[in-house]
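Notes for week 9. Today we move from apo structures to complexes. The key idea is that a small molecule is not decoration. When we ask for a structure prediction with adenosine-5'-triphosphate present, the ligand SMILES becomes part of the input, just like the chain. The input block below holds both the sequence and the ligand string. Read it once before you look at the output, and try to guess where the molecule might sit.
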Amino acid sequence: MIRSTPSIPIPRTVPLLPLHDKVLLPGVVTRLQISRRDSIPLFEKILRTYDRKELHKCIIGVFPVHPLPKPVASVANKAEDGDDNDNDDEDSDTGSGNSNSGSGRKGAKAAGYRKKKTGVYSDDDIVVVGSSTGQVVPMRPGQSSQSTATVLSPASIHTMGCAARLVRLERAVGGFTVMLEGIVRLRLNKILTQVPFFEAEVTPLPDKPIGKSDQQLQDYIVALKSTSKEFVSLLQVLKLPAPVLTQLQKFLENVGLIPGQVVDLLMSTIESTHEEKIMILDATDLKDRIPKAVELLTRQIHVLKISQKVHDNVEGKLNKKQREFYLRQQMAAIKEELANLPAEVQKAADRELKRLKKMQPASSEYSVIRNYLDWLGDLPWTKSSEDILDVERARKQLNDDHHGLEKVKRRILEYLAVTKLQQMKGEVKGPIICLVGPPGVGKTSLGRSIAAAMGRKFHRISLGGVWDESEIRGHRRTYVGALPGLVIHGLKKCEVNNPVFLLEQNHTFTDHYLNVPFDLSKILFIATANSVDTIPAPLLDRMELITIPGYTFAEKLAIATNHLLPKQIRLHGLIEEDVKVTEQALLKVATGYTRESGVRQLEREIGSLVRAKAVEYAEVQERRLLNRPTTTTDSQGTPPAHNRRLEYQPLVAVDDVEEILGQEKYVNEVTERLPTPGVVTGMAYNGVGGGILFIEVSQMPGKGHLQLTGSLGDVIKESAQIALSWVKSHGYEIGLTNSQGQNIMEKADVHIHMPGGGTPKDGPSAGIAMVCALVSMFSNQTVPAATALTGEFTLRGLVMPVGGIKEKVIAAHRAAVRKIIMPLRNRKDVVSDVPLNVRDEIEFSYASTIWDVLKEAFEGRVVVRAGTPAANGGLDSRM
Ligand SMILES: Nc1ncnc2c1ncn2[C@@H]1O[C@H](COP(=O)(O)OP(=O)(O)OP(=O)(O)O)[C@@H](O)[C@H]1O
């Protein structure tokens, strides 16, 4: 990067670029604005002659120009102004061929330049040029290297200059912008032409190699080394741009090798007069150049030191005053924010405030405490919203927002009434409400209605995916980036201390971050859960459980008609008259496009229906306006039916549903399924609602092994084993074997599979269904597809009650099951929980023993052998 001798060949004749207020030195890259008449033609020619890629081959002689003599009066004025373009006693020794720098210097001295005010460069003054050499050049903002003044006289061109190559050349307003890199000093021998630009014969004067034995020169170099080191260290203090410093430092490492270039570069970074710069340019001999440079550097160091002192003083004073003022303001603001805190919190806040006052605002601890105090100040410690505990109003709100759910609504109203009474007496509230039910059954919207009815703010804290307690309780402040947890975040957002939260309650809740207690007793917490299975028993015990089972199709239809459809119509910018969906159509959407306990998917599908109608409505309006036929066509080129209409038709009939929503997504597996030996319909219930599931059994040659598949849990596997054992031991009684001791699985293996292998299944409630599936397979008799079974089964043949009856029954009803066999002890659940319309459409058979089950399931097709204990209807006494 750093060359000690120019590697670029310099031609004998070069075009001249006269520089009026600048001096280019070798090794320096500079940017110039060319706008003078004496230079523009040169660059026009270069642009015409050189290809862009070859610009760097163009070598130019860059020569300083001495100012022309000026009238006396003007000189006087200028002198007063302190302008450095003083009178010029020109050195006209242009063709002297004098390689001695003395003549140029003489000329410069004779010109009587006055020294500029010296000072410190600001960042703006230095232009870092990202050139091949990456060296630096000072250039003042807005400074033009050439003014558009006087006509140039050959006599004013200095005898020493610098060969430069073009790094960049661009057209600019009024001329060119060029970037030049100085290569080597040039002596001007003779000006050859002047029009359209100057050309001259020149001699390159590279620095001579440094003789090791030249003690005087070595001494100079040592002096240069230490001075430049000091200079650069001062520049560091003054915060010069980092790239400039790095370049300088790199360069200085080579002082010993190329002292000449280092001097040239340093000279371009310090404040010096035009005269001084010419002096350095003229100094072709290093023994001449280095001492001059050391002198100039020393002066610059002195100036830098003084200005640094001044700078420090001013800054220090200002900073101290400003900081104090700023801090006072900040403290006052914080104090104001922290007014009205509870006593204990106030104590903590005061303690932190005291610490804050002693800290540097720039320290990281300062911002941590500041943040903490902001949190304390932002929380609604004492601010509550006014409660409306009007039971009648709440009833109306709940009824307006939700169809059905009578039991749930009644329970909520009771809760509110009790809360009201307790508040009047100043007592503590009862337990938290926990709404349990499958997704989309309205738990969240019930919570929202409760908040609206009570005139409270509503905030939902979603705990999905929260594994870490600190997400709820916050992180201790000792952690980097610590913040309060979800509860405190929610309170800040609500801006009152008594919102409705969907979560758990705790009196003296202490967030780890705040580390001071916040009384959460005013918050009405409502918890929601899809299933109670995952809630720890002690917590469950403290909550008021309100279960919302899945909806029947009838309920879904009512919810869709009264709530979902009107809501979607509103959301799509239409009015109720614009979309009329028939009951049949809505039912088809519910049965053919959704399979869920709640109504979320139903709402989405209704949304799609309404959207399609909205588009149709808009198109008809548009067509009417423009009176033009439709343009929308399908892949066959015919417009879809609803698009061909000239009048908008608000009605969506059952036949339109498929056209808009596409093919039905769900077919009814129960009605579609043919009764098959070995396959029985079971009933399932999990967190996301009820459903039916099939139990498939088959046998194959083997040695009496049982194989179970379908993501089965331990309990359900045990049920299968119990069922098989029972069937094996009662094979003779139900006519599966011909003799008492015969083993039906002597030469066979049995495989029990429950389809839907992706869904884990567990629990004992498939017991009786498994027995029926096995009996069906071994006897080759079928259980009707529309008959479903649920019930636990013991080895002795007893049928035990199971959970989730309401959800199971509703789901089975949705799946077109028309007969359900279940434990006798579950009868009460059917009577109390299952809606009447469902009960009316399903035949219930209650069983207390497996014999009852077999009788009902096979409708008499499996006959109990006469003379066996079972024939008398009794339980197996042998077990
Ligand atoms: N009985 C109902 N009457 C009117 N709208 C209902 C009813 N049940 C549910 N909805 C509507 O169904 C949508 C879904 O309900 P919501 O978001 O409250 O379900 P969720 O039970 O909280 O579900 P998740 O367990 O997934 O959070 C809402 O738009 C809600 O208004």
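Residues 1-6, 71-150, 874-879 have pLDDT under 50 and may be disordered.
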